[in-house]
């Protein structure tokens, strides 16, 4: 009978050493960052923080409910900005996703990299920055906000959608192809039904995110609740700020509920 | 009639999946294609409608050469070839009716298919086929709501709705239980008989092939090593196709399946009586 070893190591000595070194680097980085942070901190303000927070909190209470009627139109603007922005994003993202997906892209060498670049570019810029740029170009107002939301949504929707397209079941597509269907029909019968749940899930999820984002876009002049928030902050009208924050919270909770229901219904 | 001449497929990796396969399938003949996994059965079937592009050789279906066709002409010829898949390959999220009608895609415009407005004759044919395969009441259900046997029936109806001149059948019973497998095979054979439809059936279950096929072709490493009747499929032939193995044991298994099936039918009859 042969003797089998009684020890077995999950990682090789080299891997163990590398792991320890990795942890060491992380700790060193943490210590360094802590040092940078404390060097620029005025500690007197920090010790004071609880008192300041209590002070502002006290001034924020109670919310000024009589301000509500003035917020209804901006709220409607915010919802419209999110919805129209999502719509714009979807319209632009769908073709980009089909160009970016490896299995549907008509040209892997030219169009696919372009589509991927569009997705990355859109994702790497926050919608607040988009809005800042667009307000400078188009002037303040809802249109700038809608376009900002739309441009930011292309990347999100495009990326998730093209991943869904790449994950489709090839056999179903093959079966439709075998009937003699044209490429457009294969898309319509073989691919689209498979990505429909992902498509609606992604769209509603992005709409949900966009409601949150559009609520603050007003800070840079793109209209909606954010504009009111900025005005209230500037005039130190804390009870109004509270009301606006509560309203945003309520809107987000409602949109979350709607998106959960929609996603539940389609899958 | 289908004629293959020196059909060869070499994959880019250098694997030779098919080597100079030549065979003729006359009208109305159902041919079983047997062989071990990786022998090239699937590749052969997919080369015929060019889901896999053959490297060389000729494919002639009732006078038309399929091997050199451009995409548009190929699509037109594919309409004449119905295909039935392993694991059904239905579009799971479409209804049974949409799946059956998708067999007509090659005949209608994109707009007609997009709006699901198929010509009345197509709809009538689809209902007739669903009735034939016994799924009339399931027409508006989604394909993923059906059982395995039912899905394969939809697959058969989809292929037939093309009014094909040839059926390519790829492991139709691979994911079905023995009893459902026999029902599906019986249905396929009946339908081919009714319509005088030739078919090539990939099948890994030798007893099933012997029970249902008129002619059997054995493939090994991309070459035809046997072509004859089920009776000619002796133990030594099976050894040439699959390599050494205890074939009598395998046949006994098949026998046991059949006995079990008969018993189950008898028991069902007793229960319902």
TrEMBL record, chain A:
Judging by the UniProt lineage, the source's domain of life is Bacteria
Its membrane topology is listed as: Multi-pass membrane protein
Q: Which InterPro entries match?
A: MetI-like, MetI-like_sf, PhnE/PtxC
Key words of the record:
Cell membrane, Membrane, Transmembrane, Transmembrane helix, Transport
User: What region holds the ABC transmembrane type-1 domain?
Assistant: 75-259
Pfam families for the chain: BPD_transp_1 (PF00528)
Where does the protein end up?
Cell membrane
Q: Does the keyword Cell membrane apply?
A: yes
Membrane-crossing ranges are 17-37, 81-101, 108-125, 131-151, 214-231, 237-258
Q: Where the protein is mainly located, per its record?
A: membrane
PANTHER family linked to this entry: ABC TRANSPORT SYSTEM PERMEASE PROTEIN P69, PHOSPHONATES TRANSPORT SYSTEM PERMEASE PROTEIN
Q: Which family does it belong to?
A: Belongs to the binding-protein-dependent transport system permease family.
Protein's UniProt name: Phosphonate ABC transporter, permease protein PhnE
The gene designation is: phnE
UniProtKB/TrEMBL annotation, chain B:
Keyword annotations for this protein, in alphabetical order, are: ATP-binding, Cell membrane, Membrane, Nucleotide-binding, Translocase, Transport
For this protein, the record's SUPFAM superfamilies field holds: P-loop containing nucleoside triphosphate hydrolases
The family database entries (PROSITE patterns) matched by this protein are listed as: ABC_TRANSPORTER_1, ABC_TRANSPORTER_2
User: A single Pfam family, by name?
Assistant: ABC_tran
Q: Does the keyword Translocase apply?
A: yes
- For the keyword Cell inner membrane, the answer is no
Q: Which NCBIfam families match?
A: ABC_phnC (TIGR02315)
Kindly provide the name given to this protein in its UniProt entry: Phosphonate ABC transporter ATP-binding protein
Which organism is the protein's source?
Pseudotabrizicola sediminis
> What is the phylogenetic placement of the source species in the record?
Bacteria, Pseudomonadati, Pseudomonadota, Alphaproteobacteria, Rhodobacterales
